[in-house]
Structure formats: C-alpha cells, structure tokens
Design a protein that fits this description.
Elements lengths: L6 H4 L9 H7 L26 E6 L6 H15 L4 E5 L6 H13 L4 E4 L8 H9 L4 E4 L11 E4 L2 H16 L5 E7 L5 H14 L5 E8 L4 H14 L5 E4 L2 H14 L5 E6 L2 H9 L4 E6 L4 H13 L15 E3 L4 E3 L3 H4 L6
Helix pairs in contact: 2-11, 3-11, 6-7, 8-9
InterPro entries: Peripla_BP_I, SBP_2_dom, TAT_signal
Protein name: Sugar ABC transporter substrate-binding protein
GO molecular function: carbohydrate binding
Length: 347
C-alpha cells in the first residue's frame, strides 16, 4: 500500500484516508505560488472565512456504527468553519419522515443540502424539489434515480469494494487447489449490496481454483451477522475464506466463528471499523483485512457544500466548479498498513 500522498495528490489518489482525500483538496492551505499555473486565478475554497453558508444535512437514523460515523464526520467538519452553519436533522429510516425533514430544510431556505437518503429511489422527488427551488443538493452515498436531483454525488465504490476484497482473497488462495469461499452480504434489497457481490464475483473469475460455495445476507446488524454466520458454518464444514460486507455485522460473525471453534480460514471485512482495525493489528484471529467504505465522505460532502455555497471550485484542479461526481477508493487494510488508517476507524 502506498504511503499517504501529498495534499494535492490526495484529491483523486488512492484515498489513504478515504474521503479525507477530498477534504484536504477542498480546503487547501497552499499559498498561491505553490499552486499550478492553471489555478492561479481560480476562486478555490480555502480554510479562511468567506461568505456565510447554511448547510442542511439529512441522513437516515444513526442505528448503525457507520451511519453514526457519517453524522459525526459531518458535524465535526462543519465546526471547523466559522462561516458554516449546519442544520442537521434527527435522521429517519422511514421514507415519509425523511422527506418531511428535507422539506423542512427546503422551507428554511438553506443554501445547500447534503442528503444521504435511506432509499435513493424513494427520495429522488424531494431532491428534484430542492434543486427546482434553487437549493443545490450534494447527494451522499445512496444515489438518487435522476442526476437532475443533485448537483454533485459523492460516495463509496461498492463494486470496487467487492472487487478489491475478491482480489485480496484470490491472491491469498491462488495456489490452493479447490479453494472454497463464502460471502456474508448486507441488505439484499439495497443496490449497493448487489454491486458489492458483483464486484466480488467478477474478481473471483480471475482465480479458477476458487469457488464461492455459499452466500447469506445478514442485514447489517450484529444479531443477524451472528445468526447467518452460524448457518454458513454449519452448512460448510471446510472453507478457506470469508468476505463479510460490513464490519458491524462482522462483530456478530466473529462471535459465531468463535463459538463454532473454527479458525481454518481467513476473513476479510468491510467499511473500516476501529474494532476491525484493532483485530487486524493484533493478528490473533481469522480477521486479516477489511476493505474501506469511508464515512469521512460526509466530511467531504460538507467541504463540497461549502465550496458550492460560496461559488468556489476546489484547489488542485483547473475547473472553476466542484465536480459532478466523486467516487472514493476502497483500499484494503491489513496488518501491513493498518497503522496509517487507525485514526480513521469508526466505533
């Protein structure tokens, strides 16, 4: 894994701190003579106070470690700026409730909206409503059905997450004949889960010696992770690797593995929880790696919303506007590079 790159390199590089890559580029402290010639006259956002911006933030209920980290990243990033006022909702998993919360923010005439929809398809219309009201929308993580419903999308690479998990496992097992892997997925009714599985399956096509022999969906909860993993272990008497989509449900999966007394395989997690990083660093169990899906994307969304509200671009790029889309990189974290990622782990 490469070391954390320079500020400018962080923007679209290997995302050594996930979405933190974009954060740094959006708020560069570089002096004018340090910037490339193409950017000398670009009105780029900086850390210095500028035009006041009120940002409305609406996300699902924080009933999951990753979602709680999303809220924390948004709030802590907004506090960094004296020119930003953050209007944050309580969060809701009920579609109608979240639409109502967003409509309240629209009626308050916030300058920019950051929305992580509980269901992208179901909330597309309220995104369109905001845009038509002249309030630009930063669509976070779960994408709306129409690009007209947002000004900028920022999110993780779900397909890449599965792809990188598959290649990591593939390289570990490439010399083992008849290798068997199992998959513990998230919520099957979410498009992101399907994308993660597709990426994983596509990666495994490069390793003809490996077969995926079973898959269970565990709903992103500790309880379901434990129950579904127990079922997998009971059905499969010998496996060589497990890919678990989510570190939160992975807590339950590890309980089931311990209770079953199984340790013949390696496990790769997903998202980047602090507990997973610590287990990887200790290297005493089956968990050997996790694939990032950084909640710091919410901090990046605040940076983008601030730049948008101030009519700015982002330093390190030649354009006068923020991008239309930013997809984060899903780095694999194992014992060799876990120390550099430890500070980004969420509880």
């Amino acid at each position: 894994m490469p070391q954390i790159p320079s500020r400018r390199g962080l923007l679209f590089g290997t995302a050594a701190v996930g979405a933190g890559a974009l954060l740094t580029a959006c708020t560069s402290n570089e002096s004018e003579d340090e910037k490339p010639a193409a950017n000398q006259n670009q009105p780029a956002a900086s850390d210095k106070p500028g035009k006041p911006v009120t940002i409305g933030f609406a996300g699902p209920q924080a009933d999951h470690g990753w979602l709680n980290a999303i809220n924390e990243n948004a709030e802590s990033r907004a506090k960094k700026y004296s020119d930003v006022t953050l209007e944050i909702t309580e969060g809701a998993n009920d579609t109608a409730a979240q639409i109502g919360q967003i409509e309240t923010l629209i009626n308050k005439k916030v300058d920019v909206l950051v929305i992580l929809p509980a269901d992208g398809k179901a909330l597309t219309q309220v995104g369109l409503k905001a845009m038509r009201a002249g309030i630009p929308v930063i669509n976070l993580d779960r994408v709306f059905n129409s690009p007209q419903a947002y000004r900028c999308y920022i999110g993780g690479d779900n397909y890449g997450m599965g792809l990188n998990a598959g290649h990591y496992i593939g390289e570990k097992l490439k010399d083992k004949k008849g290798a068997k892997v199992v998959e513990l997925a998230g919520l099957d009714n979410l498009e992101l889960t399907k994308q993660r599985t597709q990426g994983f399956d596509d990666a495994l096509k490069n390793y003809p010696n490996i077969s995926k022999v079973a898959r269970q969906a565990a709903d992103f909860t500790v309880e379901s992770g434990q129950a579904k993993m127990a079922q997998l272990l009971q059905a499969q008497k010998q496996i060589d690797a497990l890919w678990n989509h989510d570190d939160d449900q992975g807590v339950g999966a590890l309980r089931a593995i311990e209770q079953a007394g199984r340790d013949e395989f390696l496990m790769v997690g997903g998202a980047g929880a602090l507990a997973a990083f610590e287990a990887i660093k200790q290297d005493r169990g089956v968990l050997k790696a996790t694939v990032l899906y950084p909640p710091t994307m919410a901090a990046s969304a605040i940076d983008l919303a601030r730049a948008l509200g101030q009519g700015k671009g982002i330093s390190g790029t030649a354009e006068f506007e923020i991008p239309a889309s930013v997809t984060l990189y899903s780095a694999v974290v194992d014992k060799d590079n876990v120390d550099q990622y430890m500070a980004t782990g969420f509880k």
